[in-house]
Amino acid sequence: MKIAIIGGGPGGLYFAALMKQLDPAHEITVWERNAPDDTFGFGVVFSDETLGGIENADTTIAQDMARRFARWTDIDIHYRGESHTVGGQGFAAMSRKELLRLLQERCHDLGVTLRFSTPAPDTERLRASYDLVVGADGVNSLVRAAHAEVFRPSLDRRHSKYMWLGTDLVFEAFQFFVKQTEWGVVQVHGYPYSATGSTFIVEMHEDVWRRAGFDATERADFAPGASDQQAVARVRELFADELDGHQVFANNSKWLNFTTVRNERWHHGNLVLIGDAAHTAHFSIGSGTKLAMEDALALAACLHEHPDTEGALTAYETERRPVVESTQRAAQGSLEWFENIGMYVHQEPTQFCFNLLTRSRRITYDNLRTRDPEFADRVDAAFAKAQGLGNTAPAMFQPYRLGELELKNRVIVSPMDMYSAADGVPGDFHLVHLGSKAMGGAGLVMTEMVCVSPDGRITPGCTGLWNGEQGDSWRRIVSFVHERSTARIGLQLGHSGRKGSTRLMWEGMDDPLPQDNWEVVGPSPLPYGPGSAVPRELTRADMDRIAADFVAAARRGAEAGFDLLELHCAHGYLLSSFLSPIANHRTDAYGGPLENRLRFPLEVFDAVREAWPAERPVIVRISATDWVPDGNTEHDAVEIARAFIAHGAAAIDVSSGQVTKDERPAFGRSYQTPFADRIRHEVAAATGAAVIAVGAIASYDDVNSLLLAGRADLCAVGRTHLYDPHWALHAAAEQEYRGPGAAWPVQFGAGGRKPPTARTDAVRPRLSLLRPDPTDQAVHLRWTPARAPAPVP
């Protein structure tokens, strides 16, 4: 092939070297507009996984890199005058300049043509004369910009300011300096990359940056490659104690806002993007260099494996996109955590450190326990102490008091519509469904949305509480839960609003009924989505009637013996649609600003709270974001939560979306928990209200991690309980926990131990002459390069 590469960074150079090794006959030219010894930045970090790939692909490069690595396993976190060390992580870093030099030499030895200080020819000219054109020209890619109509990039410019610096202070480990100043929180991400230097990245929210006066050079016109020396001098002063007399070095160092780059497509004909041109991930979880070199490896492999370019580029994008998107989700969580770091500065130091370490949701409690058991023990002890408890049971099995309601543990079976009632009456299916979950170990089991009237149902199969027959059937289920388990059971009340009169989920979710449908209502005559029924706009008289329906249903629920009531103000149902500017276009006192949109949901809440027994808690489920432009955001969710708590809500159950079919959720592991985290720290913690996290929480490790980090007080787990009704009890067995937080029903007690498998049942012989020395398994490895001897006077 004849290949043109635009951009001589690590990704472009590594790709060129790999392709030449696969076939020396390839004719490869790299254009780089900078000189060969121009490089911006200081050190780059690699994971063990990436290094393994490099070693498999090019042993020469891998060996040259390995000889220059700084290696360590520790992370040091400096916070509120204390330093905490966590080990077992595993890092390798080297100078970016050294890496580029090695890759340039490798390309030269293999016969790649390198053209430095030379802008690349026009992309279309290259495409016409080369078999393949690779855009490896970084975050400000001209290739991407020239073909934006095809790649369809989105550039998310973030809210914090950062500056990439270096220092001659050689750190022994990864360093996080979290400094509380009179202007706000400023943090440093630092790590060693050689025997003589470390990377020193300063970051702060833009509000802090302005209050601190760093915006003095905001409009300065710096020459190419020049640094903001005024800001560098301020940084030296601000971190004088941490630098301990050492220097800070600049290299094209100016204040930047991180931009997350995403593209809908990565290739177009014989043109393909790699590295930062295609995608970026925040520096707080790793290196763009790492991603770029992984791209290069995958692209070279796919070109080698496929006979045609289009097939190879399609395979490359198919292979790499899920990996990159997973990395970007983790990076987004990390990025947003640091943007909001000011929310956490009240946390006790051990919890703060755990929170920082688990910010991306990739590192969890179990990960840390495997890597550094001593630190995990400290986290457990700190959590138990903060809860006023004398034991260190897993966090999920610690008891919790919700108002006057005692829960044996912090696991909730999330409300899940079953669409299996007849005329609103729950039957044997619901008894078995909810009863099995209660016997399965959860602390609280929630009903599905129980509808307050026939025209408040979502589907003909939804349960209700608008008559005595329904109340009697619910009483039977509640009695079973109370008699046969130690769980509590909660009632979720709601009205479908504009999402009503639809088919059963498995017949066509949200599709209107073909016949026997009923009138749907909403705050405004706006359908949920294309094909949905247009709701009738509610009058004041309608609203009074519906509020009375909620009150009557609440009273029946109290008579049935439910321990808790949750008002459903989420997922686009009636009360949720009043809250959302997407569904509520009213011009009266119930529409417009958030204060008005809250009015009717709060009226219903107050009426329900008045009708519900005072000693039993009332909680509220909300959608924290509508996931669409001009809809509610997490900032609105904070104010919505604040309002309900002020009216007496004992907890906020934080879900998101389902307000419109146009939504674009950012799905992923525990993807809704950052919303719960924000509400807990900005509102709930100061009021004593609880926060419930929900959304793709799939493992007991996730639950423990969220609780220990202080992101939620309780966790609601839905689909996992459908997979395994005894999920909580099995989680206890996996963690070897036996106690009141996960007591097995006496009838099932014999099953309380995890059954053996072929692997666990086998008895293994001794196969080594000497036992390994546990001290050789270095949990705490520091970077301590040999120092040159001091000169003799």
TrEMBL record:
User: Keywords on this record?
Assistant: Monooxygenase, Oxidoreductase
- List the InterPro entries: Aldolase_TIM, FAD-bd, FAD/NAD-bd_sf, OxRdtase_FMN_N, YqjM-like
GO MF terms listed in the record are:
anthraniloyl-CoA monooxygenase activity; FAD binding; FMN binding; NADP binding; NADPH dehydrogenase activity
Q: Does the UniProt entry include the keyword Hydrolase?
A: no
Sequence ranges assigned to domain NADH:flavin oxidoreductase/NADH oxidase N-terminal in this UniProt record: 396-732
Q: Does the keyword Protein biosynthesis apply?
A: no
Q: Where is the FAD-binding domain?
A: 108-328
The record's EC number reads: 1.14.13.40
Which superkingdom, per the lineage? Answer: Bacteria
Listed name of the protein: Anthraniloyl-CoA monooxygenase
